[in-house]
Amino acid sequence: MGFISNAEDVARSAMASIDPSLTDKYAALIQFLISSPTAASALRGKNAPSVGSEAYIRKQAESFKSGRGLLAPKLPSTVPDEMVSFILHHYFDVSEDRLENVKHEHLLSMAAENLVGGLLERYLASAIEPHGWIWCSGSMIRAVDFIKPPHARKEHWRLLQVKNRDNSENSSSSAIRGGTTIEKWFRTFSRKPGSNWAAFPDVSLRSVVSEDGFRAFVESYLHNLREANSKREP
Question: Global pTM?
Answer without folding.
Answer: 0.91
